């Protein structure tokens, strides 16, 4: 009995391709892309002061477009191509039809699908870094930062951990869907870049409802983020998706409970800030909700370095620290059976959490896995401190990292010539941008008074 005609192999659907896997992978990639645009566009645009809404949202959109050009130009092959050295691939263009239509290095779908899926991972990483720099970084400096950091930091981390030829991949580091390559990298890089970009003006969010909508898109996008990390529409993907949402919900509720216990009020802003069992996902949610909460709300005020570095949206706590915790807890709770389903390699038995190693008498294997996880943390952290610092110092030779004080006072109108919220008809706006921008009274009462008096005259 033959296959149905729609499943029969042909030139557009070769024998090695699984249509279901290909469809799921493209869907997962799109869900992750929606985390960036419009998810983080809306989240950042709502979380900043109104005079920074356009600039913050556009930093996201620019990074998304810029990384795509870098990715197909040289980034993908540096991350997943032929080995140049133990931690880096050879740069090469990813546009050849024969290369894109052949089977990917993992999964039963074409390389073009893999390129797109890995692109959205690469794109969201500098966008998360932007969360540490909003409200003060020179946009021209940001335009330079994204391709430079992507080339000299992200590709090294991705090749080292995710490429089969990478040294940390061979060591056995488990990074299911970017805890190290994305979250630890963006958290450390954001904190480092914030150090070089200096302080900003403090600001409250301008639209909390819009911020919540962005957070919701970000949350739902995790379905593709972790569900697509298996490269197949499998039972393990289903478990990864369920665990992701269980962990996220537990973390959010933990954060709210701690907020209520300490301040008496549930903070909305605070709340928005795959290879384990579901019970472990709940435990990981409790830890990922409580430890970053403690470091951000309590410890941050006591450590001099944390107080000195102005990390706008606390990406160090919510991403770097969370990535470290995830890596360590994976080294503790990774289940051999689930690792076998994930990796599907002959040496799958080496992937075992320390807790299961102690339980099964394979303590040395568990300790080895924990050692590999710690080695990955050390490498990614050092890589991003060094490379981010070098990129920032190089940019400072060309343009200032930080906006001028006059531009900081005005915001979007001075940078882009546009405002997010028009307070009166455009034809009645004054050409003097300084008068035209409505500041908070506590920041510039004289300008506000002048603006109101002139409006009364119109």
Automatic annotation (TrEMBL):
Spans traversing the lipid bilayer: 23-45, 52-74, 115-134, 141-162, 174-196, 208-225, 237-258, 270-294, 314-335, 374-399
Its subcellular locations are: Membrane
In Swiss-Prot or TrEMBL terms, this protein is called Ammonium transporter AmtB-like domain-containing protein
A molecular function (GO) term: ammonium channel activity
Domain Ammonium transporter AmtB-like, residue spans? 23-421
Q: How does it sit in the membrane?
A: Multi-pass membrane protein
Similarity field: Belongs to the ammonia transporter channel (TC 1.A.11.2) family.
Name the UniProt key words of this record, in alphabetical order: Membrane, Transmembrane, Transmembrane helix
Which Gene Ontology cellular-component terms appear in the entry?
Answer: plasma membrane
């Amino acid at each position: 009995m033959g296959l149905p005609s729609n499943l029969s192999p042909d030139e557009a659907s070769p024998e090695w391709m699984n249509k279901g896997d290909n469809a799921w992978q493209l869907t997962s990639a799109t869900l992750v892309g929606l985390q960036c645009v419009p998810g983080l566009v809306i989240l950042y645009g709502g979380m900043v002061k109104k005079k920074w809404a356009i600039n913050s949202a556009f930093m996201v959109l620019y990074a998304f477009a810029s990384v795509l050009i870098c990715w197909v130009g040289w980034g993908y092959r540096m991350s997943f191509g032929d080995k140049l050295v133990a931690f880096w691939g050879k740069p090469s263009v990813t546009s050849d039809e024969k290369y894109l239509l052949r089977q990917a290095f993992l999964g039963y779908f074409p390389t073009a699908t893999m390129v797109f899926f890995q692109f959205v991972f690469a794109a969201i990483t500098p966008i998360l870094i932007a969360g540490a720099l909003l409200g003060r970084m020179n946009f021209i400096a940001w335009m330079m930062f994204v391709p430079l950091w992507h080339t000299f930091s992200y590709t090294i981390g991705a090749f080292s951990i995710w490429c089969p030829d990478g040294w940390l991949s061979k060591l056995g580091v488990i990074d299911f869907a970017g805890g190290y390559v994305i979250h630890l990298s963006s958290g450390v890089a954001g904190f480092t870049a914030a150090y070089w970009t200096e302080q900003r003006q403090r600001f409250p969010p301008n639209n909390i409802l819009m911020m919540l909508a962005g957070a919701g898109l970000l949350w739902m996008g995790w379905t593709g983020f972790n569900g697509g990390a298996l490269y197949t529409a499998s039972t393990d993907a289903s478990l990864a998706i369920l665990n992701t949402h269980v962990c996220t919900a537990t973390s959010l509720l933990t954060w709210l409970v701690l907020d209520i216990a300490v301040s008496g009020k549930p903070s909305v802003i605070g709340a928005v800030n795959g290879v384990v069992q579901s019970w472990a996902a709940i435990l990981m949610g409790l830890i990922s909700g409580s430890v970053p909460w403690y470091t951000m709300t309590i410890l941050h005020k006591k450590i001099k370095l944390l107080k000195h570095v102005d990390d706008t949206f606390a990406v160090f706590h919510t991403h770097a620290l969370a990535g470290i915790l995830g890596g360590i807890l994976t080294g503790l709770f990774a289940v051999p059976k689930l690792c076998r389903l994930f990796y599907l390699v002959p040496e799958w038995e080496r992937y075992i959490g320390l807790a299961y190693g102690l339980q099964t008498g394979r303590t040395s294997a568990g300790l080895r896995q924990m050692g590999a996880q710690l080695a990955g943390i050390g490498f990614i952290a050092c890589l991003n401190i060094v490379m981010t610092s070098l990129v920032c110092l190089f940019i400072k030779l060309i343009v200032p990292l930080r906006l001028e004080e006059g531009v900081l006072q005005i915001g979007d109108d001075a940078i882009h010539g546009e405002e997010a919220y028009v307070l009166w008809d455009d034809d009645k706006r004054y050409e003097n941008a300084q008068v035209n921008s409505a500041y908070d009274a506590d920041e510039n009462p004289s300008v506000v008074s002048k603006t109101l008096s002139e409006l009364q005259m119109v």
